[in-house]
Amino acid sequence: MSNRYKDLQNSHPCFGGQKNNAGRIHLPVSPGCNIACRFCDRTINDVEQRPGVTSKVLEVDECGEILKKALAICPDIKVAGIAGPGDTLATDRALDTFRLIKKEFPDLIKCMSTNGLLLNERADEVIDVGIDSLTVTVNAIDPKIESKLNAYIIYHGEKIEGEEGAKILIKNQLEGIRKVSSAGITVKVNTVLVPEINGDHIEDIARAVSEAGASIYNIIPLIPQHELKNLQAPTCLEIDSARTKASKYIDVFRHCQRCRADAVGVPGKSEYGDQIYQRRLNVRETFSHG
User: Under 8 Å CB-to-CB from 113, ≥6 apart: which residues?
Assistant: First the structure.
């Protein structure tokens, strides 16, 4: 499987936008997180359509059967992704799952999302397991701004708050992007647009991640919740302006569906998560950080 950006544009829904009918399955195997984003509300439920939500957390050894079932129902699936509900590098579960996929489903594109806190030190594992595309969420490259979006990090067992934690996070994100992109892995960067906090910072982020080796940039509008529930979601004009500024430095993805951590199917065209994960209504549980 080629993991070059131009090849993924024809085989990965997060790179080709609406130009292809590629499907994907998200395997929610990563339970915990190691940073505390002020806008993040990770939950177990069957109804919300947004990142950080899943109907259950899978065990690694469940994923083989889940994949077989999903591929039988939706042969258009070309991508196996892990995007939470926690961070994929905070435990070994995501990388162990990708090892299973590499062995049993070698034709599937392996796609992973991470906050990047441990990306620098775990880059060799990411490369060795054969990840084809990596998404890193970078919400600021200025620690002062980042600290307004992220309360603290848990780094090697230590809780580090404010700008001190933000400095470590940003450094590890950019150095990790450099390492994996240098190995030929296509890197996408996500940024949650919070106009009141990082709205004037988007151009700086786009420039920095492009210089680090990222190929594509996805600006995600804030969903007001958790500590930022009283802020306003960006308007269409603010989103378009941010994308225009970012596009000076990097390709910008404009078709994000803000998928659940257990999404299955072709984005915008089909959804089989209810069948694959046997979702029930009105089930909700909130995760704790750490």
Answer: 81, 82, 83, 84, 88, 134, 135, 136, 137, 190
- Spans in the chain with pLDDT lower than 50: 1, 45-47, 281-290
User: pLDDT at position 47, please?
Assistant: 47
d(CA 122, CA 30): 16
CA atoms 115, 121, 126, 129: torsion sign: negative
Question: Terminal CA-to-CA distance of the chain, rounded, Å?
Answer: 34
> Is the separation of the CB atoms in 268 and 67 below 8 Å?
no
CA distance 154 to 172: 13
Which distant-in-sequence residues (6+ apart) come within 8 Å of 288 by Cβ? none
Q: Quick: pLDDT tens for 199-231.
A: 999 999 999 999 999 999 999 999 888 899 999
